[in-house]
Amino acid sequence: MTKFPILYWPRKTTGDNEYQLARKVINSTTGVMPEVYADDIDIASVLAANPNATIYYPVFCESTGWWGELLGGDAVVCDKLIISPECQLMVIGTKKSCKSHGKTQLLAAEIYPASGFFKKMNSGIATVADMLATNTGTILALFSGHNQSQFINVLESTGNSYLGCIGRY
Fold it and tell me: Can you give the residue range of the structural domain that contains 90?
């Protein structure tokens, strides 16, 4: 079953070396040049219409909150490809079409920004991958870690909410 690649690229492509490199890496990984989406992408709709598609979503070092649209949908992060020190591509597909490559999980949570929580988390349970502040005073946070149950136990013991695992790579 062929998965056709889609590269979501929200920046101007003219003269963008990372864009050219991303297309080259996807082509060498899949054997097919990706279709490029430059406008906002609705990941859930694209995957519903194209269940065999794989979306390559760039995360630039200044990006925040890129993963929020994956929560609650059928989309999961299956892998990541490092393009440069400033950019990595998150490989996104459906739960049925993705096979995890490793044990690292991307775990989402709603947290209250307290130093005690971060001290517990930084003890090797999970590492903060991304955070997005909400207007209610909480933070939606993405963590990478290996032990989901230990993460949930620490999270709940500090009064925070677990939102789910959005994939493994």
Answer: 5-94
